[in-house]
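The data are quoted verbatim for reference:
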Amino acid sequence: MSVVSKIANLFSPLQSPLAPNDRSTLQSQSTVSPPDEFSRIHLRNAEPKQSFNMEEEEERRHPYIHCMLAGGVGGTSGDLLMHSIDTVKTRQQGDPHIPSKYTSLSSSYLKIFRQEGVRRGLYSGVTPAFLGSFPGTIIFFGCYEYSKRHLIDIGVHNSLAYLASGFIADLAASVVYVPSEVLKTRLQLQGRYNNPFFSSGYNYRSTLHATRTIIKEEGFAALFYGYKATLFRDLPFSALQFAFYEQEQKWAKEYVGGKDIGLGLEILTATTAGGLAGVMTCPLDVVKTRIQTQLNPTEDVPKNLSSKSAANTAGLSSQPSSKPAQSPNRSMRTISTSSPTTTIPKQGSVTLDTSSVFTGLRLVYKTEGLAGCFRGVGPRALWTSVQSGTMLVLYQVLLRKLEAHPLVAGEGASAL
């Protein structure tokens, strides 16, 4: 056998698999498999495009720490944005002068700005506002997400779960934000230290000095003044706000067919949810303000009320924090201890000689009708719309940023 024949025999076994029958089999497999693989890929890509499944979206849950941080930043930003407006309203409600020194919103805003400036005037009390708002909203969003998820998991209807979760979350956060609101409100009413333009009866040097003075002279319980009245208004507001917001978000996602609804719809859903909740709880705001700002009709209040006795008219207790005891013929005139309160009692309106919210609602409706129950509904709707819009839009934006961030997007963040 020649050398050429031996070399040819070495390669002959490798040719057997490529026999005609085998080659036809391989060709048939190669012609069938690519379409099958292509169809499988096409079906996988087409599945999520058929419809937006809200049940799958509910299963996609952000880590609690993300919700708490995003909520804390969003809520604090909304509160600080509207702080100057809240200061003007506090001055209007707690003004002891007759006639009132602060009348309309715009003129009062400009007057405080010209006389006292921004830091010590319009933004007086901003330190306790921040110290209460950030931890308060962190607690709120943490409790809200925890309650919502567990209620949905045990079979509670989504809308009812949103409503109940808002109630529970605001109740938990109130332990933090009510004391901070008392401090904030007194400093807002006071303005600058030794204020020559407005005599409120308070004269605290700082937030720390105010805290120490209140606890020393009035007791620790004074930091929770108005707690019950605050809950009667703020718990229904938070419950309705988040029930509306979650439902509007659901409709928006179904409309666009995905979870990213765009900035326009984010603003629309957030502002309308806050505005609607503010309008619906306006009667509670009216009664709360009347109860906390009224003059007791059983007392003989002199017409020539001096600013030196304003501590009792604007005070949150019968003993002012930095002034001596006032005349016994003065009655307590308290101010709102929670934002936002946008109702200014109409001159000559009925005095609510009661601390019961339900009794107050009946009296206002009986004497002033439905219009009296919704007095100040315009400013309240504006306030709650802007504040809620800022908070909830930032909340969603920050959640997406946290989800996409490489340091927190891994399994470690999901474990939280």
